[in-house]
Fold these 4 entries.
Entry 1:
Amino acid sequence: MGHGNMGKVNPAVLEFETMVKDKESYVKFIEEWVKHSWRWAKENKYTTVFKIQASILRAIREYLDSQGFVEALPPIIGPVTDPGIRGAKQATIDFYGHEYKVMSSAILYKQYMAAVLGKVYFVSPNIRLEPNDSVFTGRHLVEFFQVDLEILNGTLDDAMKVAEGLFTYVAKYIKDVHGKDLEKMGRSLPDYKPPFLRYTHAEAVELVNMLGCRNPQNTEILWECEKVLSAYHDTPIFIYQYPKGSRGFYNREDPGKPGYLRDFDMLYPEGFGEAISGGEREYEPVKVIARIRESGEDPNKYRWLLEMLKDFYPLKTAGFGIGVERFTRFICGLRAVWEARPYPKVAGIGPAP
């Protein structure tokens, strides 16, 4: 399995796209959905979704534990958090006169814990104040959970292999344990067989342009083009070697290919889009400072990170994060991530539980 027919989009994704065509009635629907979530959460479909979600987390832990990873407690707040969050804003609190951030991702902390434990993962709550129009993507929540892992002395290839193994293990586990539940929801999952196809960013851009979605050479893959690429395949795919500047400062520049990063995304098939983002981390303190400056940030804010990188030098790590609600959406074949979470928080809509 690999290439599918162009436009093989999952029916749930198509249903979502139909819903958002009429923006006004969609926003009304979402307001009701989030403000009175307890009214749908008790329906059979959603009690099943939440049970499957619990099994997804169990399977993730089983797989990572079997591979020698140790689960650690994630941070909730800190002086800085992940700045590489594609247009979302960070939530800020007053910590006894200091400005602290609520974690948008625990990436800086998992580098710290990889130094302590070797192979580490968090099941981590994240807050990202997404732009208002993210309500129309079906892929964005303001409050969500991510499984974030890191490997001491790991490489790009190590991280991609764990991503393949993790996805394949979880998909099989859910098929075995919840096959009948998936059937009732009209969802069928094939037997996924790694290795998955790998494209460089340049190859992926060339392919989406060929498929009729215009994507500039030196940017992230645009959401619309990501969906086209995802729909073109019937198994997950990897995109690696993103151009520098399209990603956070912590992604390591490839010493053998200046201007490009040792990082990757994994996309779900069927039009569901991005599943995983990860790669190797920049560990040379001088380079990290330069990259922080290039990204328009103040290195002073990252003082603890820079001190840690010096103390643990050379802290070479690689890893990735996978969103739990997006994974649930894919496995269950749901219209949007707001079906994959009780009490969902969606950009611009409130107050709601």
Entry 2:
Amino acid sequence: MKSKLSLLLGFGCYSLTAAQFCYANESDNCLSFLPGRLNQNLMIAQKVAEKHQATTYLLPATPATTQWGIFDKDQPPVLRIKSGDSVIIETDAASDNQVVPGVSINQVAKMNNAVPGRGPHTITGPIYVEGAEPGDVIRIHFNKIMPRPYASNNSLPGKGLLPEKFPDGQIRYFYLDTDKMQMQFAPGIVVPLHPFPGTIGVARAESGQFDTVPPGKFGGNMDLPAITQGTNLYLPVFVSGALLGTGDSHAGQGNGEVNLTAIETAFSELNVTIDVIKNKNLEWPLAETSTDWVTVGYDQDFNKAITILESQTTNFIMQNRKVSREQAQKLMYRNWNCPVAEVVDEVNGAYCMIPKKPNAAKPAPLPVKDNDREYVTYAKNPQALQAIKDATWEMITKISKLKAMQQIDVYSLLSLTMDCRIAPHYQGSDYEIHCMLPKSLWVKQK
């Protein structure tokens, strides 16, 4: 049966089997993917030593293990694991691995708009974690993250932070040097890579197929740059088995992701270890680095997202430090270090870095003008979203003039590298946004 998607796009044809798209080609030279589930017994990696009790699974990205743009708690799991097991996950690029070099912005827009209520992300999963039940938490440790050697960045017409400024949109493709962990954006502009999963989440409690674009308490499209290799992510569980899925793989992203997308790639290896923490009270996702705890806040209204973030941060400090609410709020403001995650996913988000050491040095004040290390813009407004819009546009016009770059190219660069942060916010005051762009991106050409 040909799907609606193949009729609309003409990118070959697809057959729908067992609730997933399986490739088929109208030519006799291409075979469809094997139907049905993969044999889990043939997905086990060899143990390093016999004494290791946990199992490591190999989860490839295939039509049998991925889904395009939806989370659905009734989607059959593609893998079942135990607490403490590891999974080496492969992911695909967006739109069923079709946003690849050679595909135009018009083709990407056509794919995105083909099926209402479906996101662009290709999700590997879901993974069923035995023993995970509602009221529990799963901890995901990121052992290793390795992207494929190319990536894209696009600003689709009508989307992003400043759609009215760039109505035609743009797509760019890049080579990723995974040995040096860097990417040349343009001659003389080199961007460091810091891979992380843009989308990783569990199934929500409600039945139905849900668009992967908006994030929420279940995680999902959080675009949280803090969850890199070596960190932990904690997610609340809403259904038996948690049903973890991931995609929207990023090789890097600015704090804000202002043009809509990051350094969009796929992972040849997302190596994770998953543990179940029983009877753990967690309302929103929580991350952990070697030096900080990371709280989050997301809402369609960016002001409300910041309010949620402040509440989550205060509550975490109260529980972690065993202090009163008043003391926790004082500590929050003393150590305030709260970047913008994204403002382009229908639901906007931000996060706070809470130092683990009680005597950690107080963060330096956020700059308001250029310095030796950074180009800086600053804006304030009663609406936080308007403040980041103003700061972003000011940075675009500044860099375009200073570096003789097209404004739409600057927009793309900022989405990958600009660091937008929220100043400490007090009740009744305007929201202040500081955006910084490293001068080190510009290198001397040999």
Entry 3:
Amino acid sequence: MSGLRARRLAERRAQRRRAARRNGMAAAASVVVAVGTATGMVSALDDGRGSDEARPEVTESPVLDIRPPAPSPSPSATKSASASAVPKKKPSPTPSPARTRTETGKQQPTTVSARLYRHPDSQVLDWVRANPGDPRRDVIASRIAGQPAAVWFAEYAPDTVTARVRTVTAGAAAQGRVPVVVAYTIPDRDCGGASQGGAPDLDAYDAWIDRFAAGLGSGEVVVILEPDSIAQSECLSGGQRADRFASLARAGRVLKAANPEARVYYDAGHSGWHPAAKQADLLRQAGAGSAGSSDGIFSNVSNFHRTADEIAYDRQVLAALGGPAGLGAVIDTSRNGNGAPADGEWCDPDGRKLGRTPTLDTGEARIDGYLWVKLPGESDGCKGAPGTFTPSYAYDLASS
């Protein structure tokens, strides 16, 4: 073999090795992204202290993605809008320069709702108790830990779910406050993506909902019913989607029959996802337009869209949905104080800020509440391990 041919052969082999390394790096990056979409949900899980006591804690919890799916179908779009799914997600609409400012232009005084319930067990409270000398403690304690937040039930554990829900609702009733609970065990959750899990099938889910409902008590309670279960349902076949929607409609009826004071809200995605008319059509199929199963819709869970945008979007969805005039909306405002990032970043993006503090008194027509469904400071997976409380991230949100 000539020296020239040998050199060319060596060059080709080197090129192949570099390509292999690039492919390996890309695959590794995909794994990192898949891990990094955790919502940091607070889950009321059985931690071995018995079925009569609930403790919200982060486990290997499902991961709630905050981005919409690609607008046109593709083979990969049959998966959920999670980071483990292959399709590129449509980024949040780019805000105008005015919309990148905070909603008030300055830090608002910290206020705490007199009506909403703060469950005494959470990662942020654990951190505050364990770090009395940390210079970030007072800011995190007053602006995050002191606020009421939702309690997630994301583990399929039918034998203990009634007692765990009852622990939360009974604790709230004892204080004369309103708890916010999240049911998140729909089968095919996240369509096999990073948040995969839930009940093994819809029959099992229906039975789980019955037991969940049995823990609601008789006082007022807000139920966030299955985030992403409707907005992400296009990853299912037509038959699968119809079956899921039938179970969601049943779930709403069961929850409200078990406790007539329960306020049940259905998944409306967020203002950067489906057009309002399309989302309303999906919601109608899932029973969200019926007073027997629904009190309205929720939006912006784990997302960053500005409250004003969500108010406008939710009103459009409700108008298109029809149904009783009393249907309303609740909005997750936990991290939306600076709106969605201009570059569409979704995983613990820099420059974000706490949104409006939780309240059931918004002063806005058809907007029933601003809630912290996602607990600020629990990482999406980029500033800390997915689903874990990250004090540096919490401090950034609280001090912006």
Entry 4:
Amino acid sequence: MKKIINQKCMTKIPILKVISCLIITTSLVSCRFQEQADSNKTSSEVRDEKRVDDLNNNVNFLPTSTTNQIITHDGYVLSYSEKDEQAEWVAYELKESELNYNRNDFKRPFFIEDPKVKTGSADWRNYRKSGYDKGHLCPAGDRKYSMESFNETFYTSNISPQKHDFNEGVWNRLEQKVRYWAAKYDGIYVVTGGVLNGNLQSIGYEDVTIPSYFYKVLLDYHNGSYKMIAFLVPHEDSDMPLYEFVVSVDELEQRTGIDFFPAMNDKEETRLEKNSDYKDWSFK
């Protein structure tokens, strides 16, 4: 009887070992399949997913898209308007650490079409002899932390027709002030674009819309609290102080049809977006 029991025990032990081995093998195979699936993603796809997660989940950042064509790049996210041949908005985070790369003297690339825009972004030739600059929405100077991010700012999905004196004047002053605030407040979130509604003129054979106004919305999130400021700037040069162009986000939403912070707590969103007071922002 003892021998039979011992034999049964002896037969159970190898069986248990086999089952254990099968479980381990199955787990390893499953892990390998997952690793293979992850490895099949391009580095660009992985970065795109992380960028959207960073922007959208951390501070409920991304606006709505009225065109349903959101494009994600390494340094910014945009909503492309095919009928206007430009972005209705470009969104990005500007960190203080990203301002420390001015010594990166990258060669200025040619403007090219955005390979991610399925409908095709504007041909740069629309701007030739038009009398308008290829005005950056996400500035190249804000993306000098890597050559890839710098080069991506030269996609035609990231530009809009701008008068030269506007581009080099008041718009440049506002870009410089955004960098100042990014350094002062340890990073801010930026949404920018042209107001594309209304009876607007265009340039080129693809009818690239010329905005009459450009805007920026800035959001600072620090220690669990928000502050927000918005600018609406007529498309002409001006020597007026920048605070003269401050408007409420509610006004921008009415003009553009864009909901800038749809995932934010409604009470917080209402409080911030109706406010046009700039006292919390240093204009020194």
